[in-house]
Predict the 3D structure of the following.
Amino acid sequence: MEATSLEAPAIEIRGLSKSFGSGDTQVRALDGVDLDIERGGMVAIMGPSGSGKSTLLHLLGALESPTEGTISLAGRRFDGLDDRELTLLRREGIGFVFQFFNLLPALTAEENVLLPALIAGRRDDAIRERASGLLDRVGLTPRAEHLPSELSGGEQQRVSIARALLMEPELVLADEPTGNLDTRSEAQILELLGELNRRDGHTIVIVTHDPNAAAVAQRVIFLRDGRLAGEVEGGSPQRVLDFLADSHPP
Amino acid sequence: MRSYYALALRQLRTRRLRLLLTLAGIVLGVGMICGVLLLAATIQRTFTDLYDSVYGETDLIVAGEDFSSGSLPPSALDRTRATEGVDQASGIVFSVVSLVGEGGKVDDGSSSTLNATGIEPGSDLTDSRITDGREVQGGSEIQLEESWAESNQVEVGEDIKLAAPSGVVDLEVVGLFRFSNGLDFGGEGFGTLPLPAAREAFDRPRAFDEVQVVVADEGPSVEAVQQRLAAEFGKGVDVATPQSKGEDVQDQVQALNIVLYFFAGMALFVGGFLIFNSFNMTVLQRMREIGMQRTLGATRPMVVRSVLVEAGAMGLIGAPLGLGLGLLLAIGLSAVMRSVGFPVGELELTPIAFVAAVVTGIATALLGALNPARRAGRIAPIRAVLGAEGLRDRPPLRRAAVGVAMIVPGLAGAFLLGASDETTTPVVAAGIGGTIAIFFGIALIAPFLIEPLTRVLSWPVRRLAPVEGRIAADSARSNPARTAATATALMIGLALVVGINSLGASFLNSIEREFDQSFRRDLTVQPRGLSPGQGPQQTLAAGVAEQIAALPEAGVVTPERFLYLGDLPRPAGAESGPPGIVFAFDPALYPEVDSTELDAGGASTDEFYRRIGRGQVSIGRGYADEEGVEVGDEIVLEGPSGEQRSKVAGIVETVFAGGQTVGMSLQTIEKVYGVTADSDLAVTASSEDARPALEAAVEKVVETDYPNLTVLSNEELKSQVEEQLNQTFGIFNALVGVAIFVSLFGVINTLAMSVIERTREIGVLRALGSTRWQIRRTIAAESLVIALIGAAMGIVIGAGLGYALLKGLAFGIPGITYTPPIGTMVGVALAAIVLGLIAAILPARRAARLDVVEALSYE
């Protein structure tokens, strides 16, 4: 799905709010967030638990609907779309990478990558070539025929990333992508994500609590209690740590 | 993979144990349906073959109704021959006889039974040909059906002895024949004698049992001749084509078929439940996965369809397996039926069974998976992240209300089934629908009962093993919907067992009470395997009564004659009567042997018997209530030998034949139905002292000269009836057993799921020092709790179901009272315990074998 305008930001968020529950137990997870993310940008969203960062990601991915506010992706607004339209939007416009990989245990790595195409009903050669190409891009061609149970955590996450890219999405969302990995795999995944952004130009939003992960991004946005709490430039874990230290004076 | 839906099929392979367990449900259900279908087809073909063979060249049959409703007058043959359009008419006599073997004994079982016909030599109209020897020509000859001769090792040229109504007769075997369609009548044999020899052997000196007619090719049509003959003879004579005779038998077998289908249907219902539960568990387990597919762009309808594809595939796989099982079942059921004297031939492989297997398998799977599929479709994409967290597991209260609302009409349906006198289709549908409604209603209510039931029923388990019991109870309570579904499946089978046995216990009790009240006799002499109503019965030789009466120990010796009619004598003004039994006795002596309660409209018992002697009749209470007939009303007797109108002298309070009886004097039954042979003899001792010696004395008489008869004391007679009842109900219980077996798989499935869900918990327990055996006990405890819940519900529902059915039956058979089957209830509770333990074996093993470290880190 190609963007219609080079100038328009990939993502526009205005006054986004989300509440859970009702009455006395109501929780306002997000409270009036405004945010723009440009095409080809890589943004990390950080914050303590309860800050609303995961909620923001879920809303971005049309996994949930906001209580108030709007989201637009490449100029197309989410509100007013019915379930079927949202499903199609997810199919072609958004790629997900989950913390727990979420691969189908019965399918090989290659088949897992091809799953979005299967769902979209596409069996053409072009998409198959793209799948092998992506597997290669994430360095897993020799493991293409293996089942997830035969792959390490890092390898599974790489399959997951390849899958997220298959349908050439407008946006890639990663929810704590390294949360379940050992430090070496973590570094590899972060490097891969950074490359996919810098070299291949994918727009990526990653939610994390790990400053190392945040540092790979171009922008690091902080949330606290459902609201924007600041932003620093990406690229350096130290900057992130400094910001965090500043916002929590002893 | 070719498509998204092929993914569903690939998924089948991953959970193999669950696939097998779920498949087992389909296979058993389909197997039952196919088995019953095949059996029904076989029975139908057996009787169709019978009529084709025996009446091969006959166009019309002139006889009393059914085979056993008496004899035609001697003039019947001439009158038939004189009727226009009749080309050939052959008069025959018929009797069921037994082969007397070595040492003068008659074997029990169908292979010693011979259906013997006496014909004028040369007028054989059967569809058969001689394979050895020749046709009978005269004298004491007999020709035998080939395979029966073979199985009894009888050859041409030998003499055989047959126990017949006139005593033991010697006959020479002059030929063997074979029916062209190879009729297999469940092992029973066929034989033909010359008419004079037959008249002597069967004690039928002048009357005919049947006249077989061949209509001339030129001249009036078969229908026209049929009408003429019907007009020639009276109402009591039936002029029918062989086909319609065959159809009549079909109708009688229909009632049996319906009962069989009902049980098969129940097994299938439980199978569907199994699918429902299994797919619900699968959907729950795959919540994260399905959510993920939704994030990848799978639409709701796609998800629903993929679950249905999985179910359909299971149905398709289960169908051929079910068909195979059905074949085995049909073979088994045939053998059982033959052993109770019902002739069933070789298995008929109707193609309908194959189609039925596929359709039933797929339909059950799809219907069972429908609700889970819709649930799967409703899974939101956010579940990819959340998994099953925060899901409400309690069904809405509204469902319980619907459930209760279904039970009441359900009970009404069961009541209706019992109350109606005819098993017409809408009535049966109401009964079956009613029962299913009750079960459905319980299924809806059950989740709300789990909490209190678990608390009560886990008490004994917690006493035995406190820790395990507590964990088990918590586990059962944690997902009430799932526990409820599992227990309900078990409940259905157990409830049916209790319900059926309530009927059995109640019938038995009522019959025994009547025996005790009305039997004043000491002994009964009857043919082995006497069962009025199940086709032609053997009769007693004329000399038996004389010989026994001559004994010094014998006091009163008086006969009874039974005749089953599909159409009892009707009240004056009515179109027809209900099916039932005509029985005749000697009014002078009968009061000595019988004291059944009577309502003679105010007259004394003596006066009642006098009236019977003058040609009046008695009727059973069931008949009286149903037809609204009272003492003094007129009944029309129309039999093959004559017609008569009689007043009702009294109403007999009996449960025999459901109270559908008409009693009359020996004279009357001879005059109207031409019945001259006795069905059994009632004997009293000449004095108190003679009583002990009586039985031995009578047995001596019977042994030598009448080996096909048996002598029964009152106790023996009672236990014979009890045995017959138990055999019949035993078959039903076995069929229900299949449903219970199916539900066991559901329990195993649920336990396996429970183990998976509590993997981490089990790991913690092991890490804290629980032994493998303790883990096993935990699983066993959970299984016991579920099984006991199922049993408790089953006992209550079964008692209710039985009560409703019986109250309905009591409408038509007053005198039947409800007896709760205490023995069965205890048995059910014990069975539940055993079944629970068995079901736990596999899952407990799995749980005990979990690696502690892996279990602790299980996500």
Notes: The helical segments of chain A are 53-60, 83-93, 109-120, 125-137, 153-165, 183-198, 211-215, 237-247. The first helix of chain A runs from residue 53 to 60. The beta strands of chain A are 11-20, 27-37, 42-46, 68-73, 76-77, 94-97, 171-175, 204-207, 219-224, 227-233.
